[in-house]
Amino acid sequence: MRSLIDPVWFLLLFLTFAIFVKVANTKLNRVIKLLTRVSISILVFLSTGVATLIFDQILATETSPKSDWSPEFIFVLGGGYELGANAAQDFLGTESIRRVNAASALWQKYPKSKVVFSGRQPGTETERAATRHGELSSEHAISLGLTETRIIIESTSSNTREHPTEALKLSEVKRDSKIAIVTSDFHLRRATGEFKKHFLSVESFGTGDAASGLSWLTFVPLATHLDENAYRIKEFAGIIISKF
Fold first, then answer.
1. What is the pTM of this model?
2. How far apart are CA 178 and CA 102, in angstroms?
3. Digit-coded pLDDT (tens) for 189-202
């Protein structure tokens, strides 16, 4: 279902229809031409860094906790990993690396907290153990200085909605536990909203990956921009779905 929440396939499908399907009705033909121009404009806009900047301003909601606040648990939400030819060759995806890096730095500030690597990767059940994502994340975190005894792997949840519900099933985690969540900037708003449904004290921390400024490339349509903005469109869809 996630693949269907993507702006590219819909816009390209409509453009293909407009190009190859001939309509005899003059008024309808004008409407199709107008919608075609709109589709092209949207596709170009979504291929620029300008769209990324706008989306990130809306989605990024990192909090600023009080100086006396200290988390009991730091939840690092899974960002995916890539399967290698064998388990030894598996490696974390970019978003996961960013999240582990940010969580490791946060733990240095709050060394008494426990770090929970939350989530398994759907679609890998027949090839890898559910704990594989957490294992890869733990290995990377330990290399950055995080103490192994402070790590917990939660490998049951498979999406944002399940992260907090599965968190509550951990023996030490309570509804009134002080929780810090670490995830990608564009995922902060939705993740924070889900955790606040189940916990009384939640602070959110991003990875600092949002674009920091303008350059001439910001205005140039690029495949990398389109890829980044597809993730953000999915986040907006996820936020809407989470309301129901």
1. 0.85
2. 18
3. 999 999 999 999 99
